[in-house]
Amino acid sequence: MTEAVTGPQIASSVQLGLKENWPQFALLVLINAFVGGMVGIERTVVPLIGSEEFRISSTTLVVSFIVSFGVVKACANLISGHLADAWGRKRVLILGWLVGLPVPLMIMWAPSWGWVIAANALLGINQGLAWSMTVIMKIDLVGPKSRGLAVGLNEFAGYLAVGVTAFLTGYLASKYGLRPAPIYLGVAYAILGTVLSILLVRDTREHVRLETAAHARQASPISFREIFVLTSFGDRNLFAASQAGLVNNLNDGMSWGIFPLFFASFGLPVDRIGILKAVYPATWGILQIATGPLSDRWGRKGLIVAGMWVQAASLFLSAATSHFEWWLVGSLLLGLGTAMVYPSLIAAVSDASHPSWRARSLSVYRFWRDLGYAIGALSAGIIADLFGMAWAIGAIGALTFVSGAIVFVAMEVRPGART
Prior knowledge:
One of its GO terms (molecular function) is transmembrane transporter activity. Residues 1-205, 237-419 form the Major facilitator superfamily (MFS) profile domain. InterPro entries: MFS, MFS_dom, MFS_trans_sf, MFS_Transporters, Sugar_transporter_CS. It is a multi-pass membrane protein. By secondary structure, the protein is mainly α. The chain has 2 domains: 17-209, MFS general substrate transporter like domains (Growth Hormone, Chain: A); 222-418, Growth Hormone, Chain: A (Up-down Bundle). It is 82% helix and 0% strand. The protein has helices at residues 3-13, 22-43, 45-53, 59-62, 64-87, 89-100, 103-108, 113-142, 147-176, 184-199, 205-213, 224-234, 236-265, 270-298, 301-320, 324-351, 358-387, 389-410. The longest helix has 30 residues, at 113-142.
């Protein structure tokens, strides 16, 4: 069938916009909550499993599960955009869930720390494919006018689920032990996410074709290598976003691995650690309902710069104190700063990318962003072993401040563009 025939058919059967596509959009929001919940089962209890059940004294070795997660997720992100264009979004989403199904079972019954590391490699594939598809499909559905809103709602669902699950696992661990009871939540998330993705999700590639038809035609095809170079450092807006995404998740990786051990070193019980580990992603998730649309109205740059600096301030505060109340304030500030940054960065990358290669550009951005998990966990673990955990938290805070300064200098606000 020729392009001249398919164009009108697509235009008459497919529409862009949140209102026009709300049932599928809402379904994808729910599915991404289950994706986020898979990470949430680990935020409180898994570092403590390493230190208390497996008696691992090295902080670097304890956080090694985050390194495996971060490296594998970054690589899965890198190929997710190409797979989405070649296979379709739905197939990649289902593949991500199938890989994630054994993860909670492996964590529950792991006889050694190596099993936990292996489970997190599978979790990285699950997150890299499934989370990537939910955000790309929402951007496909709403079109260019509401990207910030789409990303905000997607990340709201995912990180609210991370926070709620972190709280619930902390509570369950205080009542029933670190394993297996808290991890049963992950079994439910994996089954529900897989079933809904197979039975109810519809692909969104026709929405991309509709948007592309109304967009300026790409002068010539662009290779993935060219997209990788352009997104990494060839375009100043895409470079600014990529480095900020890497540092944002670098401090998140540090928070994931170091904070439970840091709080426990002051004698804080596991249920209160669960509260602190829940407040940060829950605040991050809820506030993205506001910060995503605000980035559509106010522009991306200001929110990104301010958000990175708020995160830095929260880390300095957490490192400098030893009281639950101040740690709670630090967690709230870390959630606020991340909420300002996260949807704005994804929307900024979407703004600077042509619809025909947007999914691949987002996959490159997400590669750099989620590589930050591994770099953050590994560097923080080494610093903690050498100088102490407070120094590790403070060092990551300083790097976060510098990253915000780079965005302030490098990112452009172009006429007529929401960047």
